[in-house]
Structure formats: C-alpha cells, structure tokens
Amino acid sequence: MSGNVLKLGIPKGSLEEATVKLFGRAGYNIRIKSRSYFPSIDDDEIECMLIRAQEIARYVENGVLDAGLTGKDWILENRADVEEIAPLVYSKVSARPVRWVLAVPNDSTIQSVKDLQGKRIATEVVNLTTDWLKDNGVTANVEFSWGATEVKAPKLVDAIVEVTETGSSLKANNLRIVDTLMESTTRFIMNKEASKDKWKRNKVDRLVLMLQGAMAANGRVGLMMNAPKQNLDAIINIFPPGKKPTISELSNKSWVALNVILEEKLVRDFVPDLKNAGAEDIVEYPLNKIIH
Q: Rounded to an integer, what distance in angstroms lies between the CA atom of residue 265 and that of residue 278?
C-alpha cells in the first residue's frame, strides 16, 4: 500500500445496486452494510462513501471527494465545475440513457413548451428546467418537488419535469410526454485539483479502464471451436459482418481453432449453422471484461 487514498463517491439510491455490480464485474468488490454510508472495498487505496447522486458533483467540486459517479443531469443541475473523466452508460434498468421529460395530464391543453407561459411546474431539477424554459423564451413558475412528482399534476401544478427510462410510471399516472429536456448518462468525474495529482489521476484512469472493460463485456460471450481448413470460408461467412474470428493452427495441420466474441443473444442462431458447416467442439464461455 502506498499510503495514498482516493476518496470516491458511490451513488446511493436507484443507481446503487447497478454500480456495485459494475464494480464487481470490473474486479472491485464493494460491500455495503446496513445503515452504513461507508462501504468497504477490496482495495486499500480507495475509500468509498455512499452519497445521493444528486449531491456527488457538488462534493467532488469542493474537494470533499476526489472522484465519484453521477449523472450528467446532476452535474448540470448543480452547475458543478468538475472534470468529466468518462461516460459510463448504465442505469438501474438498462444500458440506455435516462431522459428528463416534460409531462402533463392526458387531457391537458398543453401541447408544447410555449404553452407553459405563466404555468406552474414541479420538478427535482429546478435549474435544468429554468434554463430550458429560458432557452425557449418561456417564463413559468418552477417549484422544487421533494418526491412523488407524478401525482402532482393537475391538482397542484400544470406540468411536471421528471426523469424516466421507460415512461411506464408516467403512463400509469395518466401523464403524457410533451417534450424531452435532455438525455443523461452516468459520468465518472474528478475534482479538478485532484486530477492534477499524478497518483490520483493514475488511480482513476486504471479504475475507469476496468469499469469500461466490464461494460464492454456486458451481454457478450466468447465462442471457440475447431474446424477443418477446407470449411473455413463457409464458417467465417456465418459470423456477422465485421466479426472476424481469431484463427490458430492446431497440431493436426488440416484443422484450425477459431475464437470470436459475439452478443450473447446471437449465439443460439449461429451455433447450429456453425455445426452444420463443419465446426466441432464448440464452446461458449462468459466474459468479465473486454479491454479495447
């Protein structure tokens, strides 16, 4: 151990489980004890703290944390001056960005942002919403929502700005989406002064490399097989365009070994064709990380 420590913010709440799983696939095992905000991690050079994603950018900016993971939306909402090291496209449901949307009751007369003039809007992202309205030349009363934002329209407000991945919660509350303010993905961020520290920046770069490798492997598997050389062209043509396998010689000079990485969902379609084309000893194996 070098004596240096990287203070790292882990998002508490909706991203917590997905973040811990991502770190695990990257080779960093985080354990969160009940009612503790200081998870353990099997790296003595990292000190973790659980903080709501909404606050991480602010604590990274002022140096309480050296680095952290939070959404691009919360960086902008906090107007935080931090260094964005890398995007990490994952969320609690999918590998797609989340969206902040303007939503209104199904029977509302509001059809566009221009119809919000003088209206009341509830949201957790007051700054984002205010800036968006200003960009569109609209003045409205934007109020902070402490939660359960979907139920506030139309009895308490005219419209809401809320985050969504699938839109199912909005539909369940009889709301329709009018417009999208922004899409947001998770970002690995650093304090700007901490980023100038050679040891801390190197530690972060190594960590991010492994996290990105784990993300690249998500949903992919490896396939290896043996095949007669005379069938090689037919077998290679089965793979998707751009997916050229690694080919190695075998002790039997008339045969070769092939190794390729594919999306897991495609394997069931390709394996029977590979078998019919002459491939043998086909093995599918899981991938933890792919480092490009």
A: 22
